[in-house]
């Protein structure tokens, strides 16, 4: 069974500073994918970044980077140069390649960027 | 990028009525779609996997007779909440993976259901 844990229910960050959102996972399958999504108050799920279990390098997408530590089973999201528009819920999710394309989500972290 | 739409975006209904929510993949075919439910300040919980041409697969604890899923075509899945009650009020989101799109799964904008 898969499990995704986000231990930070809420976080504050000062505008223009970097912030790290934690995510740990548990799976017995060697092939899996890890995702981060942003959900603003409108409710839409916005894809941010993806990391495959066999990827050698940490994923990066603009201001988003994923600190993938496979041995520790962690996939933390780093947002650099925070902007006010980054305030939202952030969800870590995992896809088990043996379970089709189903995603299992963590509990989420609410990020609030202070001006 | 690929777009998934949902209709309606919000609905208010009386207790005991049925509500149908549509999920469409607009520019790609999806043999599989997923339906999630999200209560306020909580995460997304998978309800069921909608399979084109076959029965949906429901997660444990989800009543298949209450949440009817029909994957009518390669671009349309519908979720019908039958005999809705106030405890069914929630945010319902569908998603669809697109083959060949790398590893992204495309989400609809969600439907907010309020049952009075």
How would you characterize this protein structure?
The complex is a heterodimer of chains A (115) and B (116). Chain A is built from no helices and twelve strands. Chain A has strands at 3-5, 10-14, 19-21, 24-26, 32-39, 46-52, 60-61, 64-69, 74-79, 88-96, 103-105, 109-114. In chain A, strands 2, 5, 6, 10, 11 and 12 form a six-stranded mixed sheet that branches. In chain A, β7 and β8 (64-69) form a beta hairpin. Chain A is globular and about 45 Å long. The model of chain A has no long low-confidence stretch (mean pLDDT 93). By secondary structure, chain B is mostly beta strands. Chain B contains no helices and eleven strands. In chain B, the strands form two sheets. In chain B, strands 2, 4, 5, 6, 9, 10 and 11 form a seven-stranded mixed sheet that branches. A four-stranded antiparallel sheet of chain B has the order 1-3-8-7, with no helix packed on it. The radius of gyration of chain B is 13 Å and the shape is globular. The A-B interface holds A 33, 35, 37, 42-45, 47, 50, 52, 91, 95, 100-108 and B 32, 34, 38, 42-46, 49, 91, 93, 95, 97, 102-107, 109-110, 112.
List keywords for this structure.
heterodimer, A: 115 residues, mainly beta, six-stranded mixed β-sheet, four-stranded antiparallel β-sheet, 0% helix, 53% strand, globular, B: 116 residues, seven-stranded mixed β-sheet, 11 strands
